[in-house]
Amino acid sequence: MVSLDDQMACISTIDYVKDWKTWRSTLKGALEQAHKFGISDAVIEDTAVKLGNFLAEKVCPATPEEALMKELWEAATPDERKVLARLMVKTSQ
């Protein structure tokens, strides 16, 4: 359970991300748009790592899946975070 102090230290999730399925659908749409604009997979993966760092630091998990991802992210080394980001991108395509 997230303490009140932890809640005050992080941002609530965006309203439209109500569940894991919605989050994955949103990510898939963003990836499709990135590919339409010619953004390479390497740039997408680098951006995914930066986004993962931001989310883990600033955003409160709203679902059990997000809580698990945050826990994995925080335990991971920088190289392992790249793998996690790559897997999120890969499974959302």
Map the helices and strands.
Layout: H1 4-8, H2 20-36, H3 41-58, H4 64-75, H5 78-92
Helix pairs in contact: 3-4, 3-5
Report on the structure:
The chain has 93 residues and is mainly alpha-helical. The protein has one domain: Cytochrome Bc1 Complex, Chain D, domain 2. Helix 3 crosses helix 4. The longest helix is centred in the middle third of the chain and has 18 residues. The model has no long low-confidence stretch (mean pLDDT 83).
Name a few traits of the molecule:
mainly alpha, Cytochrome Bc1 Complex, Chain D, domain 2
Order of helices and strands: HHHHH
Helix content: over 70%
CATH topology: Cytochrome Bc1 Complex, Chain D, domain 2
Helix count, per DSSP? 5
Extended strand count: 0
CATH class: Mainly Alpha
Largest sheet: none
Counting helices, strands and paired strands, the structural category is: mainly alpha
Residue share in β-strands: under 5%
Could you give a quick summary of the protein structure above?
The chain has 93 residues and is mainly α. Helix content is 72%, strand content 0%.
